[in-house]
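Follow-up to my post from last week.
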Amino acid sequence: MNIDLYISIDSCRDLAIYLEKLDIELIGIEQSVLEKCLNDILSSSNTIPIHERVIVPRIYHESSQNRLLPHNRRRALPLCKPDSLSTARLLAKLKSLMSIAVTPSTLRYVDESQINVLTQVRIRKYLEVLLSEFLLLVDTGNVKAHVEKYMYFLGDAIEYALKRDVGVIVSSGSRRLVDAIHPRQIDAVLKYLGFTKRERNLMLVVYPMEILKQWLGV
Amino acid sequence: MIYLIAIAALILSLISIAITLYILYTHGTIDEVDIALKILRRHVYGARRSRRIKRYVLLKVVCLDPSIDMDMFIKSLTKHIRSSMGSTTRFRCDIALISYSVENGRAILRVTGDSLCLDLVLATLSIRHFIDRVSCLTIPIRVSGLVSRLRKFIGVFRAT
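User reply:
Got it. Predicted complex:
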């Protein structure tokens, strides 16, 4: 089963092409984009029939000390990006259901202490890696970005989180059509980073389904 | 008489072996021999030849930009992968396009090299479009040691 819990392509035409060409059964789309492009999504001739595809509304929220969570989090599954270390710690302590975004800029907040805090809350907490933001650093033109450093620390953080039973979800997080990445490609990248088949299955299928079940209250 | 000579020669050789082992043990050389034997058991020498594998990778090619000619892209796919992989990795990793179908957007690649080479090719296929910025996704679907298994998987049987 191909699951991608977050993409944020904001062009309706691009989104329609994305859904038409790629066979992803469960897909998370930004709520504002979903409302804007609903007709395009329904009218596009998809590889998977629309009644067999699950679309999850998501909210990408930039959390700060003043406003940790978005208001309408019952209508969409929140994905929170902390702006500082203290915000990341506060998000980890909250009991509400959401996932904490892991990007190159927030990777430094996901250390051992953060993961230890995440394990202390009764409800299972989730880290959501937006892989395309890491892969954009691979571009050879960007010589200042030390992609190997980021990938090493990302692998380390995921490994430690999985060891401590913290949920890790790996989504594409593509912002443009050219940055799209299929779940099978994510699987190959994770394999190259050294994760076993069981770990990859947890990150790509088990934890996304688990967070979705909790959100739906099933 | 002959038996006596043979027995004497045997005893002499046993004594010489015992003396050699005693000298090696006392000089610490026996440990080095032991290490050398362990290394040989681990197949460190000759590993370059023994680890060479051949795998077939079934790909799904999806061009998100309608202006790209998929036929041309698939034909030049190995060139794209090689340029994304880098020059030095090509020493131990050979890629060849075996067959493809533009209608179904499928291709079969042959990867020859060590076991790490396969993982490297799969990762390169996955992130290739981030490097060369050609918006055609090359999605690895299945890996097999036999091309016939892949053909069976996609439901195409070659008449033999």
